[in-house]
Amino acid sequence: MGGFPILSAVVFLPLIGALIIMGVRTATAGSFSKEEAGKDNRAALLAGMIISGATFIASVAAFLTFDSNASGYQLVEHYAWYGAVTYKVGVDGLSMPLILLTTFLTPICLLASWNSIHTRVTEYVVAFLILETFMLGVFAALDIVLFYIFFEAGLIPMFLIIGIWGGKEKIYAAFKFFLYTLLGSLLMLVAVVYMFQAAGSSDIEVLEKFAFAPEVQTWLWLAFAASFAVKLPMWPVHTWLPDAHVQAPTAGSVILAGVLLKMGGYGFLRFSLPMFPDASHLFQPAMFALAVIAIVYTSLVAWRQTDMKKLIAYSSVAHMGFVTLGIFSFNEVGVQGAIFQMLSHGLISGALFLIVGVVYDRMHTREIAAYGGLVNRMPVYATLFMLFTMANVGLPGTSGFIGEILTMVGGFQASTWAAAGAALGVIFSAVYMLTLYRRTVFGEITNPKLEGIRDMSMIELVCIVPLALLTLLFGVAPNLIFHITEGATNRILSLMVGG
């Protein structure tokens, strides 16, 4: 355990930055005039972007020391903490890409807030940086108690982001988000305590190899699934997500869809499959059924939405259904596809929420009927919107195609009917996304307020263009991801069979 603790630096750099910003804010409280307050807000956002940008650079440095050919945990740091509970962090091919996704999206979120957040800006930046630390901690933790602490702590800053800087019904949406995710996680806490007592350790590497009795696995699996299913989210515990997305500020929706939803899929892969293999096989048909229902049902619901943000929110539930299908296929193709789909969805859904935010900042409405003919005034916007529409549909050449096709191929190897049901979702996604695009972008301008609407600004382009480039890059060169995730995928599957 020699050398610089780079992984801990990545995890806690945003938190340290948040504390510094809070300290400076406290020291200068009341010293600004109204004219200076605006400059203070910009300074807080700039500081947040610098800190989150430095975190991204640190995560890239960590990745450069990561051996993609190894299947075990790397960059491991292990310190005594409290009794048998330890501070242990590390990464493998499953967690490393998700850490990079988190550190990549966070500065984009803060930049996207440059012209849209005007109240309590310093507190907003602090909340985002603290949230980043908790999200990174979830993916880096190799102690189950440490994982649970990070997993639950992330609720607090996201609750505040929705509840303070959200829309008209922000309080309702924030409490719904908080209660759904908290109540599901309470069952997981009971399971964590039992596992700690039974195995005598909270070390994830020890628990992966500990043979829980099949009947015990069933209850432990259900307890963990109660939390991960809400986080993913799976039908029918998905209803908090559309409300949270609609009420959250644009950046909140980006980080919610881009990273927080991935914690559910990550949890199933990190805990449910390797630690409770018998129970995972037992519940495979049920998970396939829930995945297909999520894909088909929420796609149909998305088609009938009149709010752009709510449509994309339901689309997220459908796409995470493909993740569920791939995870529980229990084969390399499906699991690789599920991990790829999580990363791809983080880029595409994040971009789509940014796309909606662009016109919302100008028109202050997300109603589809308020738009139409945007291509006549916003050609650059229309081009990028088209790219992400096609990626969300799963057009070949984009990352959306790779994730969907692999999860369906993996699902087909395990269950023909499940793959057939998921294929309907591909058709339905084309229906609702192309309908959305046609109604907002094509045609003549019928709303006089759109006559003077301006095309995308440089800040908006800087936020969205990198997501577009990565969506195309991973669509034509998916092996850039598979090379990293292959070792972790094989390790998870080998643990399921006692290998």
From TrEMBL:
Example GO molecular function: NADH dehydrogenase activity
Membrane topology: Multi-pass membrane protein
An annotated GO cellular component: membrane
Record-linked Pfam families: Oxidored_q5_N, Proton_antipo_M
Domain (NADH:ubiquinone oxidoreductase chain 4 N-terminal): residue spans on this chain: 81-136
Residue ranges of every copy of the NADH:quinone oxidoreductase/Mrp antiporter transmembrane domain listed in the record: 141-424
EC number: 1.6.99.5
InterPro entries referenced in this protein's UniProt entry, alphabetically: NADH4_N, NADH_Q_OxRdtase_chainM/4, NADH_UbQ_OxRdtase, ND/Mrp_TM
Subcellular location per the Swiss-Prot or TrEMBL entry: Endomembrane system; Membrane
Any one Gene Ontology BP term: ATP synthesis coupled electron transport
Main subcellular location: membrane
Keywords per UniProt: Membrane, NAD, Oxidoreductase, Translocase, Transmembrane, Transmembrane helix, Ubiquinone
PANTHER family (UniProt xref): NADH-UBIQUINONE OXIDOREDUCTASE CHAIN 4
Family: Belongs to the complex I subunit 4 family.
Descriptive protein name: NADH:ubiquinone oxidoreductase subunit M
Native source organism of the sequence: Hyphomonas chukchiensis
